[in-house]
Write a structure and sequence with these properties.
The complex is a heterodimer of chains A (about 375) and B (about 375). Chain A is α/β, with parallel strands linked by helices. Chain A has two domains: about 240 residues, no CATH class; about 100 residues, abc type-2 transporter like fold. Chain A contains 15 helices and five strands. In chain A, helix 7 runs antiparallel to helix 14, helix 9 packs across helix 10 and helix 10 runs parallel beside helix 15. Chain A is elongated. The two termini of chain A are about 30 Å apart. The mean pLDDT of chain A is about 90. Chain B is of the alpha/beta class. Chain B folds into two domains: about 220 residues, no CATH class; about 120 residues, 3-Layer(aba) Sandwich (abc type-2 transporter like fold). Chain B is built from 16 helices and five strands. Chain B starts with a helix and ends with a helix. Classes of the chains: A alpha/beta (about 375), B alpha/beta (about 375). At the A-B interface, helix 2, strand 4, helix 6, strand 5 and helix 7 of A face helix 2, helix 3, helix 5, strand 4 and helix 7 of B. Strand 5 of chain A pairs parallel with strand 4 of chain B, so a sheet runs across the interface.
Chain lengths: ~375, ~375
């Protein structure tokens, strides 16, 4: 390492650690966000969603049905109401998320060997609640049918392979964490880029050395950040780590390089630190959405996914990291994504180099 | 009044001189709106790709596969020879789930021995998981019930009796408030409201930071341009939501309008409050920006507040956005009585008094 490079590196570190705004975004923000989002989703699953029961049968059969509902992990009968208008009131006040109606004829039909019908009114405005209520009630009915009906020889079994408890955090947090890294990098590195760095200009340096210094400094910071987030924070919240360490490091390492190059390339557009925040902060939600990690690719226009994949390191990284850590994919199975990340690193690296060169030329002509 | 107008005009001049201030009020909201309109422009969800491993390859196994394939949300794109092959397809991201039909499937059914239909769902995406589970379960269970009914009919049981013997208790399901289970109806309003909130906070932060104040009137004057532009932006959003995306409007439009305007004012108030405390533009932008982005998680829209730990449930009250989403869902989707939504509006107004706590500090010289 030549002396000039080490000087550039130390200047870059100084710029970061002298500016409280940069420290907040580049270093602290990933942890603050990770902990806040993580704790929001910490419980992972929604248990015992309250529902109301209208029991018009009032028989031993219906009481057995209600006790089965209560035994379900998904729901709990919080209220027994005499009629639908009371139940509706509870529904509007968000005290319950479903109403089970047991008709007067319920026990008689069962005893006479006729089919009886249970009605379920689900609040479909909250999807997760709806799903739990629906699953709870259908499971209980399936249970009763299994006891009373002539058995079908065909048994249906469903298995969830990689997120067995269908935890919400395990599903969405890996993607959120990866997006946070990229977005804070764009903001933080953008802020640094805009702070006129008089020191480094007084050294007669080359753009390539300047870029190298920046990449080394930012990689070291994000190296530390990611190793804490993807071990400690992953461990605290119990997110899946089914991949091998080396594959995970390959994905994260390639991702760090790609988003740092992107951030450096963008940083040359800003003249004031606030410009970096103003242009980046609102893009975080679209960036997460086009990765296909929350709503699947099948739910939005495919061209948006493709543009996201072509422009943003986050899309490929999210896809690869979920495959590795949730499904235990091997490096061969994610080779496409890794290739994409390296291509983006190369393209944004060249753009970053050219823009640094342009900026340095402009400064020299000015002075 | 006249001095408010004077400050308003000088702020307009400031907006024209500061390129990124102007972008925050025009270009960025326009791009964000375009992105979300495109994102939600697709009506419904494409068929989700799954694979099937049919070890039996008999007329009955093919019938089950056919029944699953015609269900509304899945499409069997691959027929694999082993479950390992399906697993690899899953890890490569080609399929979300795989179905396994064991050897001797048909023979066992005909001899009335137990046999299985197994669904292996990836589980990495909760949304696709639910769609696939519902589709396959419905198809498999009706196939299973069909087998019983056929057997009973063959034994001479009449058809209505056979049905109740195969399924003594039937569930009749009614979806309230969003019977089409259309996620656009609640996600699009929510994300677009977040954009209103973020741009309002950012623009207000620029308006109030880095200057000295002499009066209350001046503060009103400088935040007024943001207020007007964001009200316009919000109006366009509501028109798109109700007229283009056909989001249902089962309740009171006036309440929705009121809540939307309150959303703008409360986030202006919060930005002034934070600016008054920090007195630094960068810090104010980072804090208001971060605070706005977190609001989604703590609104309980996708992951319910009920399932959060208790201290975090309290945290949800610190975001006016939570109340806004309640009002929107109540009045647009649920058609709830007004007295249910009124307290939410009242809570939102509480945030408006926040600037009073920092007024003195704001008016102090730096």
């Amino acid at each position: 390492m030549s002396k000039k490079l080490t000087t550039l590196i130390s200047i870059e570190y100084q710029t970061i650690f002298k500016n409280s705004g940069v420290i907040l975004i580049l270093i602290l923000a990933p942890f603050i966000y990770a902990l806040l989002y993580g704790s929001g989703y910490a419980m992972q699953v929604v248990d015992d969603v309250p529902i109301a029961v209208i029991d018009n049968s009032n028989s031993s059969c219906s009481r057995e049905f209600i006790s089965l509902l209560n035994a379900s992990p998904y729901i709990t009968t919080a209220y027994q109401t005499p009629d639908i208008s009371n139940a509706k009131e509870l529904l509007f006040n968000r005290k319950i998320y479903g109403i089970v109606y047991i008709p007067e004829s319920y026990d008689r039909a069962l005893l006479l060997g006729q089919q009886s019908c249970i009605s379920l009114y689900c609040d479909a405005s909250y999807f997760l609640m709806y799903r739990q209520v629906f699953k709870g009630v259908t499971d209980v009915i399936a249970d009763i049918n299994q006891k009373q009906a002539i058995q079908s020889p065909v048994i249906y079994q469903s298995h969830t392979l990689f997120n067995p408890y269908l935890g919400y955090g395990s599903f969405i947090m890996p993607a959120i964490l990866l997006v946070i890294l990229q977005q804070t990098a764009i903001m933080g590195i953008g802020m640094i880029g805009s702070i006129s760095n008089q020191h480094s200009l007084s050294y007669n340096t080359t753009p390539i050395k300047r870029l190298t210094a920046k990449v080394i400094v930012y990689s070291s910071i994000y190296g530390v950040t990611t190793s804490i987030i993807f071990t400690l924070i992953y461990h605290i919240f119990g997110y899946p780590t089914n991949g091998t360490l080396i594959t995970a490091i390959t994905v994260i390492g390639s991702y760090i390089l790609a988003f740092i190059m992107l951030a450096i390339a963008i940083s040359t557009l800003f003249n004031k630190p606030e410009q970096a925040i103003l242009s980046t902060i609102w893009t975080s939600i679209p960036v997460l959405l086009v990765s296909g990690a929350s709503l699947p690719i099948e739910a939005f226009p495919k061209w948006m996914y493709i543009i996201g994949e072509l422009l943003l390191p986050s899309s490929s990284a999210i896809s690869a990291y979920i495959k590795v850590q949730s499904m235990g994919a091997t490096i061969v199975e994610i080779s496409n994504e890794i290739l994409y990340l390296w291509t983006l690193t190369a393209i944004y690296g060249v753009i970053a180099l050219l823009s640094i060169k342009k900026r340095m030329l402009r400064r020299t002509t000015k002075s | 009044m006249r001095s408010i107008y004077r400050y308003f005009c000088s702020e307009i001049r400031r907006i024209r001189e500061n390129r990124f201030y102007l972008y925050t009020l025009t270009l960025f909201p326009a791009i964000a709106l375009l992105i979300f309109v495109c994102y939600f422009s697709k009506s419904g969800i494409d068929l989700l790709p799954i694979a099937v491993t049919d070890y039996d390859n008999s007329p009955l196994s093919r019938k089950v596969i056919e029944m699953i394939n015609i269900s509304p949300s899945v499409n069997i794109e691959y027929k694999t020879s082993s479950s390992d092959q399906s697993l690899e397809l899953m890890r490569r991201g080609k399929i979300y789930a795989s179905i396994l039909i064991p050897n001797n499937f048909e023979r066992d059914i005909l001899r009335n021995n137990n046999t299985h239909i197994e669904l292996y769902n990836s589980g990495t995406n909760i949304s696709t998981n639910g769609f696939i589970e519902n589709a396959v379960q419905t198809a498999a269970k009706s196939f299973g019930a069909g087998v019983v009914i056929e057997t009973l009919l063959a034994r001479g049981v009449d058809s209505s009796h056979a049905l109740s013997m195969a399924m003594p208790v039937r569930l009749s399901e009614h979806l309230l408030f969003n019977p089409w289970l259309n996620y656009t109806y609640y996600l699009a309003p929510c994300f677009l409201a977040m954009m209103i909130m973020i741009f309002t906070s950012l623009a207000t932060s620029i308006a109030v930071c880095d200057r000295e104040y002499y009066s209350f009137v001046q503060i009103i004057g400088v935040i007024l341009p943001t207020n007007i532009v964001m009200t316009l932006f919000a109006t366009i959003i509501l028109i798109i939501l109700f007229c283009w995306f056909q989001v249902p409007l089962n309740g009171n439009l006036l309440f929705i309008l009121l809540a939307t305007y309150l959303l703008i004012i409360t986030y202006q108030a919060i930005a002034i409050f934070i600016a008054g405390i920090t007195k630094s533009l960068h810090l104010t932008l980072s804090l208001t920006g971060g605070y706005s982005v977190l609001a989604f998680t703590f609104s309980g829209l996708t992951f319910p507040v009920l399932a959060m730990a208790e201290p975090l449930q309290l945290l949800t009250h610190l975001f006016p956005f939570t109340y806004y989403i309640n009002v929107f869902i109540d009045q647009a989707l649920r058609g709830a009585p007004l007295y249910v939504s009124a307290p939410n509006l009242a809570y939102m107004t509480i945030f408006i008094i926040l600037p009073l706590f920092v007024y003195k500090r704001l008016c102090q010289k730096n």
